[in-house]
User: What shape does this take?
Amino acid sequence: MLKRLVERDLYDLLGRIADSYRLRVPGLLDDGTRTLLPWDGQQISLFGEPPQRKPTAYFFPQTDPLLKIDPRGQATSAAVAEKPFALFGLDSIDLAALAFTDRFFSNPPPDDHYLRRRNGALLIGLTGYAGPSREFLPLVKGNCDLELIACGEYWLARAGCKSADHWLAHYPHGDQEQLAVLQRESAQWNHWAAVAVQQAMELLQQDLVPDSFWEEIASRCILCSGCNLACPTCTCFCVQDRQTATGTVRSRVWDSCQLDAFMREASGHNPLGTEALRTRRRIYHKLVADPERWGEPGCVLCGRCDRACPTGIGMFAVTKEIVSRFAISSPD
Ligand code: SF4
Ligand code: SF4
Assistant: This one.
C-alpha cells in the first residue's frame, strides 16, 4: 500500500496515532539541534540533523526501576502500566539500531523489561528529502511499521507491515513509479564513513592493530562515558539499589565499558584493568565480537559517539586513524 500525504494529512495521521500512543515527534531546540518531543499538535521539525538522543532509550531507559523491595524483604515488580510509544522521525540508521537492540534483548532469555515497552510500540520512519538542508536519506529496509518519504511538498507513505495498513487507508494513492526512483537512489546511497569502518574492521579481525595504538588512543580519553551513553547499540548496564521512605528500589542503570569498574570483580581483579584495554574493547566489541555473534557489526554508523566525545576518539575518528596508519592504502 502506497499513499500520498500533504502536510494537513500528515498532521491528521499523527493526531490519530497520538490518541492511542505516547507519540514523540522531532522538534527543534533553541540551540538548533533536534530531539523527539511529546506531540502537542504543533509544529514538527520535518528535516534536519538526526536527534542526538538515541531512540533505544525509550525502551531501555538510562535508569529503569525493576523491583520494589519492602522492609520485610518482599519484592514486587516496579513496572507501571503505560501507553506504548510511537516514535516518528526515525531514519534508516536509527531503525537499524533498534532492530539490532531488539534482537539482543529478544535473544533467550528474553528481556521482559525491554520487550514490555517495545512490543506494543509503533516505529515511524522519516526518509527521503528529510536530512540536513533536505539532503536525501535512504529509504528503510523493513525495520519500521510506517514510513513517510519526504518528497518536497508532500510525503509518500507506506506501511511496513500489514497491521499498520489501516493508518493509511483513507489517503489517496501514491505514485509507484516515483517510489521506484527513490528506491534506486537509496541503493546508490553510501554512508561517508562506511568504507573506513569496514577497512578498520578487517584490520582488527586480522589482529593488525598493535597494543601501542590503544595506549595512545586511551591516553586521550577523559572517562566521561559519553560515547557509550550516546550509542544506540550499547546495552551494558549495572544494578543499583536506592533506599526510599518505603523500602528499596532496585534499578538497572546504563554502564560504560570505558570506566575502570566496568568488569572489576569483587576480588579486585580486573580483566579490563587499563584504559588501553577498555578503549580497545569499546571498538573491538562493535567491529569484531558483534560480527562473530550476530553476523553484522554492532556499529550502525549513526555518528553519535563522535559527536559526544570531547576528545575526538569516537568510532569514526578511531577507525579513520586505524586505516590511515595500518592499512596498505587508505580509503581516500
Ligand atoms: S557510530 Fe558510535 S554511537 Fe553510533 S552505532 Fe557506531 S559506535 Fe555506536
Ligand atoms: S566519549 Fe571520548 S573521552 Fe568520553 S569516555 Fe568515550 S572515548 Fe573517553
In short: The mean pLDDT is 95. Residues 2-56+82-188 form one domain.
